[in-house]
Each structure stands twice: as C-alpha cells, then as structure tokens.
Design a protein that fits this description.
heterodimer; A: 266 residues; alpha/beta; Rossmann fold; nine-stranded mixed β-sheet; two-stranded antiparallel sheet; B: 317 residues; 2 domains; seven-stranded parallel β-sheet; five-stranded parallel β-sheet; binds flavin-adenine dinucleotide
Chain lengths: 266, 317
C-alpha cells in the first residue's frame, strides 16, 4: 500500500544574508533582498523532504507531494524538492499571498490538502526562516483534527503506524502515533540530500500543478488577518566592542582575562 | 482592566521557571491587570505566594504530562471558555510553543509567538517580536481580544514580590491521547545547566572539530559555567544538539557569554543577545560577532585560549 505524504514547503529569502546586507523597506514593511541573491526553499522544509525520502529509502512505498503557498515562485528554486526525489509539486500561487498571516495560510493549506488528499502523513519544517513563527503546521493539525508530533528527528513506519523521535530540551522522546498524523521536522534529522543529475533531469521535465485561491473555493474574504503588521525595522545596536590587543594571540588571551577581571566579569 | 491567563511551568526540581516569573512581570505591565495562573498538572506550593490574583487548580489531576501536551491543551482550552481572558500568556518553552499555538487555532483567535515586548491600551494589544532570525523586529497590533502570546525567555526581569492569590478549583476532562510516548532518552549532563549558567562558553564552526570542545569545557569548569555551541557545530556532530544556543536552540542570558569561532549570525544571537556581556574570539575582524560583543580578541582560538585559561587560573589562585 502506498503511503501518501504531503510535504509543506515555503519559498523564503535566503536566511544566510549577512546582517550587513540585510535591509528593510520600512514604508512597504518588507525586506529588500540584496541584488542577485535568489530565494531558497526554507531549510527545515528541506529537512522534511529528506525525512519523507528516508521513509522511501527504508523500503516503504511512498508518494511525496510538495505543497506550497506563496507568490512569485521561482520555479528552479521550488523544483529542488522534485530534484531531491519528491514526486509532485503543487503551488498555490496568488499575488496577494505574500502578505497573509499564519491563520490564512492554515486555511489555504488545509483546503489544498483536502482537495488532493487523503494523505497518511502531512509534514513540514519546524519553522520558516522569514517570520520564524513555527505555528502554521501546528495550526494545520488543529484544522485537520489530526495528531501532532513536533520537532521530529527520526521517523520509521512500524506496526502501530509510525514511530518518531521527538527532540525535547535535554534528549528525545520515542513516540508511537497512528496515521494520518501531522509532523514538524527539525534539522537534527540530518542534512537534506543534494539532488543528483538524474533527479535534476527528471525534475526539469515535471510540470507543477498551479492552483489559484478560486480553485480551492477560497476568496480574499476568507483570509482576513487576525494581526496587523504595524512596523518592520532593523534594530539599532549601540554596543561598542573593545578589542583587546596583545603582542601576539597568546598575549591577547592573557590580557583578555585581565580586562574581564577588571570589569568584574570573572 | 485586562484579564490575563498565565500558563506557568516548573523545572525538573519542581521550581517555578524563570521564564514563568518573567511572564508575570510582563503581565503586571498590562493595563490594570487581573492575573490568573494555571500550572498544567499540580501547581507548586510556591505558586501560592506569587504576586498574582488567583491560581486555578485541577480538582482531579489529569495526566497533563502526556509528552505532547494534548491534555494540557484540552485543559487550558476549557479554561478559556470558563474564564474568557483577554490575554493568554505563555513562555516560549516546549510546552508554551505547542500549547499556545494549538489553543489559539482551536479557539480561532490570534497567536503571536516569541515576543520581546507586550503592551495594551483600549482593548488593543501591541507586541514586538524578532523576525528574519532576529535581523529585523516586527511590531504587530492585535485589534481585538482574546489573543495568545508567548514570550521569549530573558525579555523581562523575573517577578520577585510576594502575593496571596486566591485559589480556584476546576474540573478537567481526561482526553484520549492520539500518540503515545513509549520512551524518553535523556542526554546525561553533568554540572550546571546551560540555561541557568552565569558563564557560558560556546564554540562554533571555527573550532574545526570536536576535540577543541574539551578546551571550552576546561574554561567553563574554571569559571563555574556551561558549554554551548552554534548550530553549525551541532550539525557537524561535534557536540550534542542539546548544547545549541539560538533561535532554534536554547535561550541563555548569563553574565558572560564567550563566543569562540562563532560568526554571530542573527539566529545564533537570538539565543544569547540578552547576556550581560558578550566576549568574542574570532580570526575575522569583520565578523558580525564583534558588532555584538563588549570585548573581543581578533585571533586564532588555538593560541588565544590556552593563555586565557592560564590567566584565569592565576587570577583565581
Ligand atoms: C531558521 C534558522 C534557525 C537557525 N537557528 C540557529 C540556532 O538556534 N543557533 C545557531 O547557532 N544557528 C542557527 N542557525 C544557523 C545560523 O544562521 C548560522 O548558520 C550558524 O549560527 C553559523 O554557525 P557558526 O557561527 O559556528 O559558523 P560560521 O558562520 O561558519 O562561523 C565560523 C566563524 O569562526 C571563525 N573562525 C574560523 N577559524 C577560526 C579560528 N581558528 N579561531 C577563531 N575563529 C575562527 C570564522 O571567522 C567565522 O566567523 C539558524 C538558521 C536558520 C535559517
């Protein structure tokens, strides 16, 4: 029996933009990506794709559908998930969708999942690196009324359904869950695999399903935000560093200890 | 008046967490607050002296510690219906992050996680939270109550006054768990807990491998501190992930945070920027960590750390 997996993935600005090149347009309340830096698939979502692929590697027959909600998709970026080994790519693309809040995202995702489902597993990254909210997938579990296991670092099909290792502050839990279930995946699962040439070739031939809000039976009125973004700005740092300079590195180390002592830090 | 429902937590020793005491301070700053606290499970004796108006105790203890917080979510959801609070405050802990989001979506109300500041006036809530890994701050307005908010640890001082809350008992319904925790594997850790340490010595990719972490451990031992790490060092497998400091790791606010071979990415700083003083050791003078640090050495850790450790030992002697 094929296990149907929906992996939710988001296109985000590259989170590794160095702080010195990170700029905000305060009046538009949006980030200005530095020239020539393309967006990426949210890193934790790639961990989620990797998790789904690991189930396939372990011998289970799986079908992996990537579902993404957003605006201005860059096809080469989103197709990385197909190149890694996912089977299908579903994009809910609407120019209004870069300004919606998490509650609206949950509505759209659950409509897309219901349209294309049923799925045995619905998984996504632990959080997205743009708004860092970490609650869309949790909200989705509530909307779909399914069990939720967050921060999964290992997953394996077993006789109960699925066995999961969930990261907790000082170790991990081993959890048995029924399927269908909703999971969030954390980077402890391991690096997402690099697409190989064959994967890239196959991905280039695949055509994503592009859906509009209307295709999902939704309209802008269904997506009224619960929060209003009133300001977006880069915080000012007024810290002034004192560089401790010795004759050489070793001397600097010694002087550092003395300076810290003078300031009663040690 | 603002009615606040505060979800309190205890640590392994049964002590109220610092993050909970900080959330009380945040609640006390709201407009004419009436604060009710609930501690999923049984509240600690100490809760009866918190500077709040009331505490809710379950008349019959439900198994709130089912591992994935399904019972806690159900308990608090039923409290929402009974108490109709304006603001529900949690700390950004494992429990707070999950229960906060589940509650809000179950009740179809606003949720704002990981906030640094919260204020309100005239029935409208304003919060500030970091976004883009901490590279930017966003101010949000929640136009109507109720709203669920989680607070980043270290954003407020812990409340330290005494009070005499009234005690309210309520009956909760047991829920059938949908997933079962069959085992918990704890990382064995000796010494001071990272979250409580007054000194944290953290290493990053610049350390180049697992061995140098023993040097950091020696320094931490000498200063009575704990060892932390960047995500890059954890992902490389040089040290267990439970040592990770940052946005998706632990939040620490020690007196001194020593960052060795760490570039100071915003997501790392998110977990340590409320430290009293940051000290950086890094070969790259342009590294972002020097923009955040109070003291810095531009140099190779291999040469800097041994003499630093010797000097620390001498100063102690
Ligand atoms: C959503 C999201 C969440 C994240 N969460 C976290 C998190 O919780 N915690 C976290 O840490 N990161 C997190 N990250 C990752 C973060 O963006 C950085 O990639 C990471 O912090 C980099 O780690 P680093 O500083 O060790 O490595 P690098 O950035 O590679 O820096 C290594 C530094 O070592 C210096 N160095 C090299 N050799 C030496 C030497 N011999 N002596 C001294 N210095 C030397 C270099 O100059 C450099 O500055 C997250 C990223 C995302 C997108």
């Amino acid at each position: 029996m094929t296990i149907r997996i929906a992996v939710l993935a988001k296109q985000v600005p590259d989170p590794e933009i160095p702080p010195s090149q990170f700029n905000i347009d305060e009046s538009a309340k949006s980030i200005i990506p530095p020239n020539g830096v393309p967006p990426v698939v949210n890193g934790f979502d790639l961990n989620a794709v990797e998790g789904a692929l690991q189930l396939r590697d372990s011998g289970a027959e799986v079908e992996i559908s990537i579902i993404s909600v957003g605006a201005e998709f860059v096809m080469d970026v989103m197709k990385k998930t197909l190149a890694m080994g996912a089977d299908r790519l579903i994009l809910v693309d609407d120019h209004n969708l870069d300004k919606i809040d998490a509650a609206a995202t949950v509505k759209i995702l659950s409509a897309a999942i219901n349209k294309d489902g049923p799925f045995d597993l619905i998984i996504g990254g632990r959080q997205a690196s743009d708004w860092d909210q970490a609650h869309v997938i949790i909200g989705l579990a509530e909307a779909l009324k399914l069990p939720l296991v967050s921060l999964v670092q290992k997953l394996q099909i077993n006789e109960y359904g699925i066995s999961l290792h969930r990261v907790v502050p000082d170790g991990y839990q081993v959890i048995n869950s029924k399927m269908p279930a909703v999971l969030t995946i954390t980077n402890e699962l391991g690096e997402p695999r690099y697409p190989n040439l064959r994967g890239i070739m196959q991905a280039s031939k695949k055509i994503p399903d592009v859906l509009s809000l209307a295709d999902l039976g939704l309209s802008a009125e269904d997506l009224v935000p619960k929060l209003e973004l009133s300001k977006l700005y880069v915080p000012e740092s007024n810290r002034q560093v004192e560089i401790v300079n010795g004759d050489d590195d070793a001397d600097s180390g010694k002087k550092l200890a003395l300076r810290m002592r003078e300031e009663k830090l040690i | 008046m603002t009615s606040v429902l505060l979800i309190g937590e205890c640590d392994q020793n049964g002590e109220i967490t610092q993050a909970t005491l900080q959330a009380i301070t945040a609640a006390m700053g709201l407009d004419d607050p009436r604060i009710t606290a609930v501690f999923p499970g049984r509240p600690p004796e100490l809760a009866k002296r918190l500077p709040i108006d009331s505490i809710v105790i379950a008349s019959e203890v439900t198994d709130s510690d089912d591992g994935i917080f399904e019972q806690a979510t159900a308990d608090i959801s039923s409290l929402l219906l009974a108490k109709k609070p304006d603001v529900i405050l949690l700390s950004k802990s494992d429990l707070g992050s999950i229960v906060g989001a589940r509650l809000a979506f179950r009740a179809d109300i606003a949720f704002v996680p990981d906030c640094l500041e919260i204020s309100n006036s005239k029935g409208q809530l304003t919060v500030i939270r970091p976004v883009y890994g901490g590279s930017a701050l966003a101010e949000f307005i929640v136009p109507s109550y109720p709203a669920v908010v989680t607070l980043r640890p270290g954003s407020y001082y812990p409340a330290d006054e005494d009070g005499a809350p009234s005690i309210d008992s309520i009956e909760f319904q047991n829920v059938e768990p949908s997933a079962l925790v069959v085992d918990t594997v704890a990382e064995v850790r000796e010494g001071i807990r990272l979250e409580e340490a007054k000194v944290v010595v953290s290493g990053g990719r610049g350390l180049g491998g697992p061995e140098p972490f023993s040097v950091l451990e020696n320094i931490a031992d000498e200063l009575g501190g704990a060892v932390g790490a960047s995500r890059a060092a954890c992902d490389a497998g040089w040290i267990d992930h439970s040592h990770q400091v940052g946005l998706t790791g632990k939040s620490v606010s020690p007196d001194v945070y020593i960052a060795v071979g760490i570039s100071g990415a915003s997501q790392h700083m998110a977990g340590c920027s409320s430290s009293r003083a940051i000290v950086a050791i890094n070969t790259d003078p342009d590294s972002n960590i020097f923009r955040e640090a109070r003291f810095g050495v531009v140099g190779d850790w291999e040469n800097v750390l041994p003499s630093f450790l010797d000097a620390v030992r001498e100063l102690k002697a």
